[in-house]
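Entry under discussion copied across for reference:
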Amino acid sequence: MPADRWGEAVLRIHFTEADLSRIELAPSADPMWELLLSSYRLRRPEGAPVFGRWRDSTRAALPPNGRALLDLIPSHGYCPDFLTPPATVATIDEGIDALAATPAEDVREDLAELAKDHRLPQWADRVSDGDVRVLGTAVRDYFQRGIAPHWKHITKVVGRDLSRRTETLQVAGPGRLLSTLHPAARWRAPVLEVEFPVDQDLHLNGRGLRLIPAFFCMGMPTTYKNPKLPPVLVYSVGHWTALGAKRAEDTGAAVQALIGETRARILRTLAEEDLNTTDLARRLKIAPATASEHASVLRQAGLIESRHRGRSTMHRASPLGLQLLLGPMAR
């Protein structure tokens, strides 16, 4: 899969009627996807208000084996698909077992693809020859130091997103669910378009689509490069609170005093979920015109970001807005 980097290209996911009835949400946070995506957060500046303190502490805590894993995961560009097995896993041990069960041919093909633009570590030859023990050790060490201490919080945030998406699917249907996964997502039946690092088409052909919310995903959604793998779309959850940072509630009174009660409520709401003006007004029980006016002020101040999608305008908290909510301890 490509690393999560903003661009002008598009991923087009082509649905059939059968696929729309076979959309499923992952049952919980996926430790392998969280591990992979956290490696981007560890080495990239984006998301500092949310992940800055986690990044600093994790860099210092990673053991040599955990750091070695980063040699196999570029911060940009292609990343081997086999590092995030399609099997449903709930623990890192299950993830490592699924990793070990990857067909050797698939591992070699992925490493050959990676080698086109990335220098492989010497121990990658052992993995290519079928010895996944070294890779399993690196995965476990990285997870235990970087992610395990925060796993309870991660699963809570992901679980909240899954509950909300499940309700959307049941009440409003698949079109509404797909169009609200991300501000850059656009549902034009039977095709879902999302911004992506490269132009890519994914034809589901009746296989359905698994949606996986990820705490460490930031920016555009991602998927596998290999179209033969079970189709997935991994997307970002709302990042209203940061790992190891002061909770937004602690700064609530100060934020309210600074920008006013209604605007503070709007900012907190948009830190949890991307919403259009109508849904924002409904959520806060205010008039749409009032919501639009306050959103305009917050946007001009750089505290929220807005973008057009069809006839709607979607809003979300900006990095500066998150920084304001999280307070001076977030960096």
